[in-house]
Amino acid sequence: MSFWPAPHIEVPVHATVTLPGSKSITNRALILAALADGPSTLTGALRSRDTDLMIGALRALGTEITGDAEILEVTPAPLRSAAVDCGLAGTIMRFLPPAAALATGDVAFFGDEQAKLRPLTTILDALRKLGLDVDGDALPFVVHGTGALRGGTVTIDASGSSQFVSGLLLSAARFDEGITVHHDGKPLPSMPHIEMTVEMLRRADVAVQTPADSGNAQTWTVAPGPIRAVDWDIEPDLSNATSFLAAAAVTGGEVSIPMWPRGTTQPGDVIREILVRMGAEARIFDGVLTVHGPQRLAGIDIDLHDVGELTPTVAALAALADSPSRLRGIAHLRGHETDRLAALSAEINRLGGDVTETEDGLEIVPTPLHGGRWHSYADHRMATAGAILGLRVPGVEIEDIGTTAKTLPTFVALWEQMLAPALSGEGVAR
C-alpha cells in the first residue's frame, strides 16, 4: 500500500491554479451528445477516470467519440449490446441505465468492488416501472434493451442522491412518452446538480417542466422529442477547485482560479460563501476568483445538504479553525463513494482531532493535530481533504493519492506546482 507524504508548509501559499473541466458537466454533455440528432463537439472536457469510463461505455454502446484530449467529437449511432465498466462513478451507474434501455440487446453493468455497495435500487426500480426489464438491484446488473422505452410517470424516493432524478431526465426525451418524475421522501440533496441537468437539457431544446414552472412540488416532466446537437464549452470543475482555495484559507495566503464562471449551476461555487463565512476574502475580477486567507480561521455552522460534495473540504477547514463547527443536512453522504461521515470522523480523529458523527452530519471541535496515516477509502475527496490538513500538520501520509484520478488526474502535479514557491523556501517540510 503506497502512502504519499502530504507537503507541509509554514508560509502562506501564493499561486494561480488553472483547472480542467467539470466532471459533472462533461459526463452529462457526453450522454446528451450520444443521444442527440447530430454530431456534437465538447471543448474543455475533463479527462479523468470517471469521464474516460463514460467515454469507454458510450463507445462500447456504439457511439463514435474521437479526440484524445480536452476536445471531443461525438457522433451518435444506434445503441447496441455492450458491457459497461462503471468504476466507482455514480454518474455512470445512475445515468447510463436509462440510456441503455434504448439499446438493442443486453447491456451488462459492472464496477469496482466498493461500487457494489452504492445504492441503485431507486433508479433500477423506476426503470422497471417505465417498462424496462432489468436483472439485479446493484452492481453487477443487466439491462435488457429493446431499442425503445415506454416512459411515463414514476414516483421515486431520491433522498439518497439527486443523481436518480438527473439520470431519468437526461435520456427521457427519447422515451416514447417522455417522463414525469415525482420525488416522494425526505428533502432532495444536491439540488444544484438537478438544476444543472435541467439547464443542459433546455440548451439541447428539450422541453422540461420543473417544480418552479408548474407549482407541483418535487415533480419534473420531460416531453418526448429530439435532443438537439449542441457544441458544449465545459466550465472548469469548481468542486475540484475547493481544495486549492482551501489552501489559501488555512495558510493565510492567496490563491487565484482563472475562468471562474459568473453564473453557474455547479455546487462548487458555494465555496466562496463558505470561505467568507470562515473569515477569508473572496472576489472575482475579470473572470478570476481570488481567495485571501485570514489570520485566524473561524468555525462554521452550516447546512451542506445541497452541496454535500464540499463536505470533505469544509471538514478539513473546520478541523484547522479556531472555534467549533457543525456541518448539517448531509446524512446522504453515507451512500457516496464511501460513508464519508464515518470516514472523515475516523481520519481526523486518527490525527488527534475531535469529530463526532451526528444523525445528519458532523460536529468538529478544533484540537492540536499530529501527523499520521490518512486513509482515502478509494475516495478522491477524502484524499484531497488529507492534503489540506497536511499543509498545516507535519507528517500526514495519504493512502492512495492516485484515487484523485477519478476527477483530477493532475492533482499531485497541480498541488506541488501551487506550493513550489513555498516549498523552495525556508520553514518548509515534506
UniProtKB/TrEMBL annotation:
Its EC number is 2.5.1.19. The active site is at E309. Keywords: Amino-acid biosynthesis, Aromatic amino acid biosynthesis, Cytoplasm, Transferase. One of its GO terms (molecular function) is 3-phosphoshikimate 1-carboxyvinyltransferase activity. Pathway: Metabolic intermediate biosynthesis; chorismate biosynthesis; chorismate from D-erythrose 4-phosphate and phosphoenolpyruvate: step 6/7. It is found in: Cytoplasm. It catalyses: 3-phosphoshikimate + phosphoenolpyruvate = 5-O-(1-carboxyvinyl)-3-phosphoshikimate + phosphate. Phosphoenolpyruvate binds at K23, G90, R118, Q163, R340, R381, K406. One of its GO terms (cellular component) is cytoplasm. 3-phosphoshikimate binds at K23, S24, R28, S161, S162, Q163, S190, E309, H336. InterPro entries: Enolpyruvate_Tfrase_dom, Enolpyruvate_Tfrase_sf, EPSP_synthase, EPSP_synthase_CS, RNA3'P_cycl/enolpyr_Trfase_a/b. It holds the Pfam family EPSP_synthase. GO terms for biological process: amino acid biosynthetic process; aromatic amino acid family biosynthetic process; chorismate biosynthetic process. Residues 11-412 form the Enolpyruvate transferase domain. Monomer. Catalyzes the transfer of the enolpyruvyl moiety of phosphoenolpyruvate (PEP) to the 5-hydroxyl of shikimate-3-phosphate (S3P) to produce enolpyruvyl shikimate-3-phosphate and inorganic phosphate. Belongs to the EPSP synthase family. HAMAP family: EPSP_synth (MF_00210). This is 3-phosphoshikimate 1-carboxyvinyltransferase. The lineage of its organism: Bacteria, Bacillati, Actinomycetota, Actinomycetes, Mycobacteriales.
